[in-house]
Design goal:
Layout (H helix, E strand, L loop, with lengths): L1 E2 L9 H13 L6 E4 L5 H12 L5 H8 L1 H16 L4 E4 L6 E3 L8 E4 L2 H8 L3 E5 L2 E4 L4 E3 L4 H12 L4 E6 L20 E2 L1 H9 L7 H10 L2 E6 L9 E3 L14
Parallel strand pairs: 1-2, 1-9, 2-6, 3-6, 4-7, 9-11, 10-12
Antiparallel strand pairs: 4-5, 7-8, 11-12
Helix pairs in contact: 1-4, 6-8, 7-8
């Protein structure tokens, strides 16, 4: 399950997210939650960096902006604990997201979720910081804009998930932007290529890298509204007749 910045915009939202997770726990014994930074936190951190240095070193840039997701994962774990559900938070590096050496726009080269697996086996809900990983030289890296979507899909592939659910501020994926065109039509099902065409045409509901990654690994994606998700079918992205592949293919 992946929750973006809009879903975690305020402290009060974490309680609502916790309720959604607890509801899903009735259907799935093992849940991995990926969250973004709260609201405009990442933009505020970038502005802070540029006030100090208009051209900050990329390594230090990544060290700074990954703080936003760490705030979100810890707060969500606290919210679940407050509702008597055991949860544990992990940074990208702790969850085994291995990337190339490039800062700010790193690509995932492997996922080794040993600690996540152990926590799942212990019955805990796992909460992972999106947008970040660690290079093979043990440097903190970030995956660029939309990187949390990619984190969720990469973890889903590594852990052989049934699907990845994305909770958004829209009812699903439309053929046009519903905020600009009131007559836009919700698409209940899309192939990977159809979804890619829509997002590359300007829709920001998912990042194209996460769709491409899911396509290479035949992983179901399901876009749902954060509000009133139980009464919505959302949009499911998959290929007819698809089967799981044996060996993961990352970026």
């Amino acid at each position: 399950m992946k929750f973006g910045g809009a879903a975690v915009a305020t402290p009060e939202q974490f309680s609502k997210i916790a309720d959604i997770i607890i509801s899903r726990k009735q259907d799935y014994s093992r849940l991995i939650i990926v969250v973004s930074a709260m609201g405009d936190t990442t933009d505020e951190l970038i502005q802070l960096a540029k006030r100090v240095n208009p051209n900050p070193p990329q390594r230090e840039y990544d060290m700074l902006v990954t703080v936003g997701e760490r705030i979100s994962i810890s707060l969500l774990a606290m919210a679940l604990a407050g509702k008597n559900h055991s949860a544990v938070s992990f940074t990208g590096s702790q969850s085994g997201i291995i990337t190339c050496d490039q800062h700010a726009e790193a690509r995932i080269v492997d996922v080794r979720p040993h600690r996540v697996k152990k926590a799942l086996e212990g019955g805990q809900i796992c909460i992972v910081a999106g947008f970040q990983g660690v290079s093979r030289d043990n440097e903190i890296t970030t995956l660029g804009r939309g990187g949390s979507d990619t984190t969720a899909v990469a973890l889903g592939i590594a852990l052989n998930a049934k699907k990845v659910e994305f909770f958004k501020d829209v009812a699903g994926i439309y053929d046009e932007d519903p905020k600009k065109n009131a007559s836009a039509k919700l698409r209940p099902h899309l192939s990977y290529s159809e979804a890619l065409h829509i997002v590359k045409s300007g829709a920001q509901v998912l990042h194209h890298r996460c769709i491409e990654l899911a396509s290479r690994n035949n992983l179901f994606l399901h876009v749902l509204p954060f509000e009133n998700y139980l009464n919505s079918t959302g949009t499911i992205i998959f290929e007819e007749g698809q089967t799981k592949i044996e060996s993961p293919q990352y970026e």
